[in-house]
Amino acid sequence: MKTCILLGLVSVSLAATGQVSESPNALALLTVYSPEGPSMLEFPGRKSWAGHLWLDHGDVGRLTPGHFLTLKLREGEHCLAGERFSFMAHESDVRTVFTLHSGQRSFMRLVIESKAVAGFGPTRWLAEPVTCQEASHEAAAAQPVLLKRLEKSALDQVAREPFFPECMR
User: Fold this and answer.
1) Which of 99, 23, 89, 24 is closest to 62 using CA atoms?
2) What is the DSSP letter of 49?
3) Whole-prediction pTM value?
4) For residue range 7-49, what is the model confidence (pLDDT) as tens digits?
5) 145 within 8 A of 69, measured Cβ to Cβ
6) Looking at the domain covering 26-157, what would its CATH class be?
7) CA 93 from chain center: how many Å?
8) Cα dist. 90→20, 47, 70 in Å?
């Protein structure tokens, strides 16, 4: 009887502080990647993402072409954004809003659309939802983002995967 009461108090205490570990099925996985390719802004056009990534208005870290990152996220609505073109990394007003469901794995291609010439002009960092097959075709050889490139506050959301995830058949 005393053991049950003690365990009940511990679980209530942990639940109140948000330290109860969640079941892996209660989370969704989001893999973002920047395709291999040029990212320089000398000429207009679509480029591979090189810059900071924001998730739900929090800076996740810096991604570069040929790299991917898988995040463990709660079910519900989220938003991704790139950086506003400036000398300091600030979150852009251009955001991709998406909804995740428990147990789901989703993929987002990260690209830059630029009208810049010689590095000056409108530039937008975009996240585009893609299928697993599209993502695998473009990023099968991508490397995981180095943890030192990520913000410490984002590390709890990282699902460490040594290789780009395979599609379920």
Assistant:
1) 89
2) -
3) 0.76
4) 333 222 222 223 323 455 589 999 999 998 766 656 667 778 7
5) yes
6) mainly beta
7) 17
8) 33, 20, 22
